[in-house]
Amino acid sequence: MSASRKIAFVGLGIMGKPMAVNLVKAGHHVTGFDLSQASIDTVVAAGGHGAASIADAVKDAEVVITMVPADPHVEAVILGEGGVLENVGAGTLVIDMSSITPQTSIKVGKAAREKGVRTLDAPVSGGEAGAIEAVLSIMVGGEAADFAEAKPLFDALGTTVVHVGPDGAGQTVKAANQLIVAVNIQVLAEAVVFLENAGVDLAAALDVLGGGLAGSTVLNRKKANMLNREFAPGFRIDLHHKDMGIVTDAARAVGAALPVGAVVAQLVASARANGDGPLDHSALLRGVERLSGREVK
Amino acid sequence: MSASRKIAFVGLGIMGKPMAVNLVKAGHHVTGFDLSQASIDTVVAAGGHGAASIADAVKDAEVVITMVPADPHVEAVILGEGGVLENVGAGTLVIDMSSITPQTSIKVGKAAREKGVRTLDAPVSGGEAGAIEAVLSIMVGGEAADFAEAKPLFDALGTTVVHVGPDGAGQTVKAANQLIVAVNIQVLAEAVVFLENAGVDLAAALDVLGGGLAGSTVLNRKKANMLNREFAPGFRIDLHHKDMGIVTDAARAVGAALPVGAVVAQLVASARANGDGPLDHSALLRGVERLSGREVK
Amino acid sequence: MSASRKIAFVGLGIMGKPMAVNLVKAGHHVTGFDLSQASIDTVVAAGGHGAASIADAVKDAEVVITMVPADPHVEAVILGEGGVLENVGAGTLVIDMSSITPQTSIKVGKAAREKGVRTLDAPVSGGEAGAIEAVLSIMVGGEAADFAEAKPLFDALGTTVVHVGPDGAGQTVKAANQLIVAVNIQVLAEAVVFLENAGVDLAAALDVLGGGLAGSTVLNRKKANMLNREFAPGFRIDLHHKDMGIVTDAARAVGAALPVGAVVAQLVASARANGDGPLDHSALLRGVERLSGREVK
Amino acid sequence: MSASRKIAFVGLGIMGKPMAVNLVKAGHHVTGFDLSQASIDTVVAAGGHGAASIADAVKDAEVVITMVPADPHVEAVILGEGGVLENVGAGTLVIDMSSITPQTSIKVGKAAREKGVRTLDAPVSGGEAGAIEAVLSIMVGGEAADFAEAKPLFDALGTTVVHVGPDGAGQTVKAANQLIVAVNIQVLAEAVVFLENAGVDLAAALDVLGGGLAGSTVLNRKKANMLNREFAPGFRIDLHHKDMGIVTDAARAVGAALPVGAVVAQLVASARANGDGPLDHSALLRGVERLSGREVK
C-alpha cells in the first residue's frame, strides 16, 4: 500500500465522485470540491473532506486532480481566476483526468510549468461502471517522474495505467481510442444491414465473424445491442460526438489524415441530429438503416 | 469418425490442395483435378486419386467441391461447357468453397436446382496456414439438410463451421468479414499516424488501446506489422482489393449503404495503384502515411 | 447538307425514337427496329422504314446505330445470336450510342474488328428534350476516320460533337460527366442544408454563390428545384444510380481513385433505397436533409 | 455618388490595403491602421490618413472596417484590450470583412450590441485582383438597416453585394462558397485522373464536359491549371485549408451533415501535409494523382 497523500479533487460528477471515493478508500486524505453540495457530501460521508471553493480545496494539497466535462471547464478551473494555478504552491502535482483536446493539455502544462507546478494529463476510459469498480484504463501524458509519483493513485482508480508520452499524450491516446471505437461500431453497423438485407441469419453470422480476423471488443460487447435493437447507454452518442470533435481537431493540429475518421464524425453528428444523442453509440446502426431506406424502430 | 464419401475436388491451388489432402487424411475417397499436374500428383501422393478432366473427376462422385479464384472461374467450372453440371447426376451435392459474389452463388444454385443437383456456397477464411492446419472458418449458405450432410466434410477442413442462411449467404458473410477487416485495419492505420505525429509512445499506446473497447483481433495480429513497418503477407492487398469489389457490388445488389466501406474500397484500390498490392493488408498504413505527407519506407 | 446514308437504327425508346426521326428529317434513309411496334410506326410515319428483326434492319445498312438501356442489351443486340455482327458485312460502321461501361465498348470494338466491322461508341447527354430538339452533346470514342465519316449524322442529332479518343473513350467521358454532375449536386445540397440551418436567406445566398467561383450549370439549373423542393424529373436518380455504377467500375478498371465519387455513389444509392429513385437527381437534397435530422417534405 | 463618410480601416494586408485605397478613391475620409507602417503609408499616399493605434484610428469614425486574417485576430482587434469596442461610441457601425467562423461573428455582434454598437459581417470573395479592381463579391450578415447604410461603401469595393441574413450569415455564405469550390475542384481532379488513365484526349473531354450539366466556373477557370500542371496561385491551398476548418466547424455548430465536405476537408489537409500548401487549390489534382499511384510532377 502506498503512502497516504493529501489530494484535492475538483469535479465530482458521474465519474469524479466514485473516483474520489476510491481514493478515500485507498487511504488518502481527499478534499473534494464541486458546485453540487450533494456530491461533496457523498465524499465526506465516505470519509473524505469538503471544501467551499477551489482555493479552499487545494490550499494544502500535494496533488490536485481535476475531472470536468470539456476544454472550457479545464481552462476555467485550472487557468482561470480563482482557479488551481492561482492557489497552489510550486511543486504541486496537478493531474487533469478530463477528456479534452491535447492542445489544451499542452497549454495547461506550459502555463503550470511557468509557475513551477507539475502536470499530468490522464484521461480515462471504462465509463461510470469502471469508475465505481476502480477498473478504469488510464492513459497518461507528462514527465516520467511525475507519472511514477502518481502511479499509486492511478492504481487506486484503474487496472490499466500506462505512461504514453509527454504533455497531451494521454489525451491523444484517448482520442485515438474514441476514433477506433466509433469506426469499428460504424463498420459493424454497415455489415449488419448488409447481412440482414441479404437474408442472412445475423446471429449465426456474427458468431462466425467474431471468431476470425473481424473479431473485436466492439463486436463482442455491442452485438446484443444490434441484434435486439436495444440501445440503452452505455456510452452516449452525444459524448462520442464531442469526442469526434476532439479527434478531428487534434489530428488536424498534427497533420494526420483521417479519411475514414472524418466520414464517421459526420455520421455520429448525423445520429445526434436525428435525435439519437441519448442512445448508446451502437445506435450508429440506426443511421445505416436510415441510409438504406429501412424502417428504424 | 464420419463415413467415407466419394469426393471430387476441382481446383488444387494454394488453398485447394491442402484442403483436398485433409479430406484424404480424414478417410475420404478424393479425386482431384487441376490444370497443374503437379498439384494432382500431390493429392495422389497423399493417398488420393487424379483425374484428367472435370468430367473424369466428377463422374462417380457423391460430393463435388470446387475451389477456384473468382466468379468467372466458378461460372466456367460449374456452369460451363464440359463443367460440373453437365457431368453429374441428379442428387449430387456440389459445394463451392471459392470466394465470389453472392449473386453468382445464387445463380449457380438456381441452375443446379433445375437439374436436380444440390449446392452449398461455403467460402472460408483463415488463409493458407488455416487450410494446411485444418482450422479454417467456413461460412455456409444453402439448405439446412445439405449443410447437415456436408458438416463432417467441413469438420475435416476447419474448426468454425456455421450455416448462415440460404444460397449465397456464405458468400455474404465472407464479404462482410472482409469489409470489417479492411475498415478495422484502415482506422488502426489512421490512429497509428495520428499517434506518431503527436509524439506518443506508439507501442505503449497500442497496448492500452488493445485492452479496452478499441481492442480487436486486427489490432492484436497486425500491431507488430505496423510498429515494425514489416508487411510480408499475410493476406495480400491485391486479394483484399478483389474482395472489396465483391463487397461493394453485393451491398449495391441488396440496397445496403456502405459509406465507410466505399471509402475504404477506394483506399485499398489506392494502395494497389501505389504498388502495395503484394504486401499484407496491414500496409494500408502506407496509404495513410502518404496522405499525411510522411516518408513511406 | 451531307449525302444521304442508309442507316439502321436499333432501339427506339425515349431517346432513340426522336433521334431516328431527326435522322429521317436530315434526309437519311432510316430503317428502325424495336420490340415495340408502336415505336417503329412512329419512325415510319416520319418518313422512315420499319423492320421485323435486327437482321432485317441491318441487311443493307451502311451505318448501324444502337441505342439501348445497358451493357447486357448492347451485348445481346450487337454480339448476341441474331445480332448486328452476325448480319452486317465487312466495312459497316456500327455506332453504339447507349450509355454503358467503357469496358463493354472496348469489347464490342474488338469483336467487331475481328469481322472487319468498324465501331464508334457515342453516348449522349442532354436528355429527352435534347434528343427531340437535336441539341445533344455527343462524346465519341473510336478511330478518327470513322468519326469523320459519322460526323454529319451526329450533327443531325446534337450541337456539341467531340471525338475524345479510342474505343470506349466516349463512354469514359460520359461517365466522367455523370461523376461531376452527381458530386456538384451533392455539394450544393450540403451547402443548402448548411445555409438553411444557419438561418441564411437561401435565395439571396444562391444568387451570390452563383456569381462567383462556386457557380456552375448545376447551380443554375437545379437551384429552383432545391429552393422549391420540387423534384419532378429531369434526370432520374434511378438512372444516375446506374451511371454511378458505371463510373466506379470504370475507374476501378483503370486504377483511378475516386474518394469523393465513391461516397457520392453511396449517397445516390441511399436516395434510391429511400424511394427517391423516380425523382430528379437534385433530390439528393432530401438525403442531406435526412442525414441532418430534418423533416423531408 | 454617396455622401463622404469618416471611416477607420483596421488591417491593411493584401486585401485590406487596396480596399482602403478604393474607399479613398470613392471620396471617403479613410484613416488606416496596421502593424506595418509601410501599409499605412500607402493609404496616406493615396489620399487617406494614418493612425498610431486602433484607438487613434477609430476615435472619430462613423464606420469602422476590420480586415484581418482569422478568428483570434478579430477577437483581439474588436473585443480585446485597446480594441475597437473599447474606443468607439454608441451608434458606430463596425463592419468586419475578415473571413472567420459565423460563431465568432455572432459573438462579436452580441458584444457590440451590449454597448450600443452596430455590426455587420461582410466577408468577400474574389481575391487580391478582385480587391484591387473593386469587383469583389460581398456577402453581408446583420440588420437590414445597417446593410442599407453600408451599401454605398460596399459598392466602392465590389460588384456583387448581397444581404443574406442576420449576424454571421455573411460568414456562413462565404463558408458555403469555399465548400462548393473545394468539392467542385476535387471532383474535377478525380475526373481528370480517370480520363487520363483511360487514355482519353483530356482537352477535348474538358471542352465537351464544360458545355453540359458538368460545366462550372471552376472547370472554366481551373482547366488550364490542370491541363498544364501549372499551379501558381491563385488561391492557396493553405488558405483553403483554413476555410475548410471554418466550414466543418460551422456546419457542426448548426447540425448540418457534410459527408462529402468532410472528406474533401481531409484531402485539402492532405495536400497541405504533402507540401502543396503554397500552390493554387487546383493542385488538389496532385492528391488524386498520389492516390492513384501516378508520378506527381
UniProtKB/TrEMBL annotation, chains A, B, C, D:
Q: Which family does it belong to?
A: Belongs to the HIBADH-related family.
Q: Where is the 6-phosphogluconate dehydrogenase NADP-binding domain?
A: 6-165
What NCBIfam families is this protein classified in?
tartro_sem_red
Q: Which residues form the active site?
A: 174
Read off the PANTHER family from this record: 3-HYDROXYISOBUTYRATE DEHYDROGENASE-LIKE 1, MITOCHONDRIAL-RELATED
Gene Ontology MF terms:
2-hydroxy-3-oxopropionate reductase activity; NAD binding; NADP binding
What organism is listed for this UniProt entry? Kitasatospora aureofaciens (Streptomyces aureofaciens)
Q: Which protein is depicted? A: 2-hydroxy-3-oxopropionate reductase
Query: Which InterPro entries does the UniProt entry name for this protein?
Result: 3-OH-isobutyrate_DH-rel_CS, 6-PGluconate_DH-like_C_sf, 6PGD_dom2, 6PGDH_NADP-bd, HIBADH-like_NADP-bd, HIBADH-related, NAD(P)-bd_dom_sf, Tartro_sem_red
Question: Is the keyword NAD assigned to this protein?
Answer: yes
Q: Which UniProt keywords apply?
A: NAD, Oxidoreductase
